[in-house]
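PROTEIN DESIGN WORKSHEET
SECTION A - STRUCTURE
LENGTH: 78
TOKENS:
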């Protein structure tokens, strides 16, 4: 059970990292092509970066909770 919880947390962190890279690329490319709306691309990129931040933070909290559970289990056994 703890492995699946940790795995879920890691998945959230990885997905957040992927989202952050994609958003950073969108921001970097904003306004570089004639058909793109630079300000809209930047706004969307910033929103996606914020979403990525929340994904990583949530994943880290899940991992921390699983780590705390493991610690509690070891404490109970000792």
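SECTION B - SEQUENCE
RESIDUE ASSIGNMENT:
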């Amino acid at each position: 059970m703890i492995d699946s919880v940790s795995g879920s947390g890691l998945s959230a962190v990885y997905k957040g990292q992927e989202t952050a890279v994609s958003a950073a690329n969108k921001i970097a490319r904003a306004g570089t092509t004639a058909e793109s709306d630079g300000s809209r691309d930047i706004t969307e990129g910033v929103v996606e970066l914020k979403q990525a931040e929340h994904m990583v933070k949530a994943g880290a909290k899940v991992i921390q909770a699983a780590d705390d559970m493991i610690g509690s289990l070891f404490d109970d056994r000792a």
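SECTION C - NOTES
The mean pLDDT is 87.
The helical segments are 2-29, 38-77.
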